[in-house]
């Protein structure tokens, strides 16, 4: 198995686990610090594996360089909105706007990630 394949599998596994942990934490009735801290570890792994993929693929697919840059930006925004939702929920503040932004940014990120280079063709 090549480095790129294992990095791709690591990246997909970490963001799927992060989404599962996020929904567990966000929909739980009481805050769970253990789940939230594990989610933060997932953020780090997502950024590291995503950065490795970005460095590997950005130069290889000439026609979509800007799209890879946008994917990185939107991916970081997804992580930011996940964290904002959980922190605001813990503080008892409204999260409605952040849920909407999270959904939009997540869909854009998934589309960009799956439609370029090593993703699926839609």
Care to describe what's here?
With 122 residues, the chain is mainly alpha-helical. The chain has helices at 3-27, 33-57, 65-91, 96-115. The protein is globular and about 45 Å long. The chain starts with a helix and ends in a 7-residue tail after the last helix.
How far apart, in Å, are the first and last alpha carbons? 26 Å
Radius of gyration, in angstroms, nearest whole number: 15 Å
Relative helix content: over 70%
Number of strands: 0
Number of helices: 4
Quote the beta fraction: under 5%
Tell me the structural class: mainly alpha
In this structure, how is the largest beta sheet organized?
none
Provide mean pLDDT, rounded. 87
In N-to-C order, the SSE pattern is: HHHH
Residue stretches low in confidence (pLDDT < 50, at least 5 long) are none
Gross geometry: globular
Question: What key attributes describe this structure?
Answer:
single chain, 122 residues, mainly alpha, 4 helices, 0% strand
In short:
With 122 residues, the chain is mainly α.
SSE diagram, text form:
Elements: H1 3-27, H2 33-57, H3 65-91, H4 96-115
Helix pairs in contact: 1-2, 2-3, 3-4
């Amino acid at each position: 198995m090549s480095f790129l394949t294992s990095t791709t599998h690591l990246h997909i596994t970490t963001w799927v686990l992060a989404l599962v942990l996020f929904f567990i934490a966000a929909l739980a009735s009481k805050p769970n610090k253990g789940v939230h801290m594990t989610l933060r570890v997932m953020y780090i792994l997502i950024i590291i594996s995503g950065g490795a993929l970005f460095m590997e693929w950005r130069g290889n697919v000439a026609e979509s360089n800007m799209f890879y840059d946008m994917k990185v930006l939107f991916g970081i925004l997804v992580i930011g909105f996940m964290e904002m939702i959980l922190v605001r929920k813990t503080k008892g503040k409204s999260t409605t706007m952040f849920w909407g932004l999270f959904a939009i940014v997540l869909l854009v990120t998934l589309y960009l990630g799956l439609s370029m280079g090593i993703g699926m063709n839609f």
